[in-house]
Amino acid sequence: MGIPPLDEVLSAVRVVAIPTRTRFRGITVREAAIFAAPEGASEFSPFTEYGDAEASAWLAAALDFGWQPQPKAHRERIEVNATVPAVTPAEVPGILARFPGCRTAKVKVAERGQSLADDIARVRAVRAAMGPAARVRVDANTGWSVAEAVTALAALAEFGLDYAEQPCVSVGELAEVRTRLAAAGVPVRIAADESVRKAADPLAVARAGAADLIIVKAQPLGGVARALEIVAEAGLPVVVSSALDTSVGIAMGTQLAAALPDGMLAGACGLGTVALLDGDVTRASLVPEEGSIPVGRPPLDPDLLDRYAAAPERIAWWRERVARCHALLTDPRER
Ligand SMILES: O=C(O)CCC(=O)c1ccccc1C(=O)O
Ligand SMILES: [Mg+2]
User: Fold this and answer.
1) For 203, phi and psi rounded to 5 degrees?
2) Which segments of 152-254 are extended strands (E)?
3) Per residue in 35-72, pLDDT tens?
4) CB 52 within 8 Å of CB 41
5) Residue 31 annotated as binding site
6) Which of 98, 107, 112, 329 has the fewest Cβ atoms within 10 angstroms?
7) Residue 324, SS3?
8) Active-site positions?
């Protein structure tokens, strides 16, 4: 894949700072670099604490989506899950209301500073609000030890869980949780997220048999085409997810989900998160309607790019980050 020259990339970039409607991952303002690129709008939005080596995969994805033709879409809409941050039970109905028609919810658990009792109360509130037929998932974002994961998932299993996403940090721990839950007769599947998107080897988890399914995200995996290769090699069912992107980054996710062969998708995708933002860069936001979002590339809105423009020092910071990551992708001496 040819990488466009840095001056062309920098002349296409805008930087936005969009408030979130609810604190998520400790974030209350989401910053993103948005490109008005030849193939359509593209997004580069690694979290600000990520180093350049990790962020450069996100830039490869943004340049691929903005400058290269994308694979054929096999579907027009993508079913999405409601994403429930680590809120109190009283806040659950308000969060779910932003995801109209969604029959699957993914609930954040194991948040730092909270207890298992908080997680149980939150999952109970989600199950109560959605009814017995809904699918309920949890995402611990590596927050548990093996022992904590087994205890927590045995307790949460009473609410009927579709799967538990990344209960622990390492591939070895995921495998152990999976084995211990099976031995204890606890019917909870394990999904790998960080073990795919942050690992030097995204296929290690599949090779080790450490998960029942994998979460794939286009930006951290280096783009739609690379993510499709990983899916094909992993041979496990897939849920496509995002990283709290604007509708432009979500569009990259819909492109990936729509390109997957039938039968690979393990249910609703985690692509409904524009509903958690208090703004966007397009008037055609990819927010859930009747439980799904459309596949496609929404046009950038110049007024919204102005309204959410980041402060000058943040724009400079992002432009320098783009330049450093671009160098990592193009200059062999940087490897
Ligand atoms: O999968 C979803 O429902 C939404 C995306 C999500 O949870 C997320 C968003 C930002 C950073 C990390 C994660 C994650 O899946 O761990
Ligand atoms: Mg996750």
Assistant:
1) -95, -5
2) 161-165, 190-192, 213-217, 238-241
3) 999 999 999 999 999 999 999 999 999 999 999 999 99
4) no
5) no
6) 112
7) helix
8) 108, 217
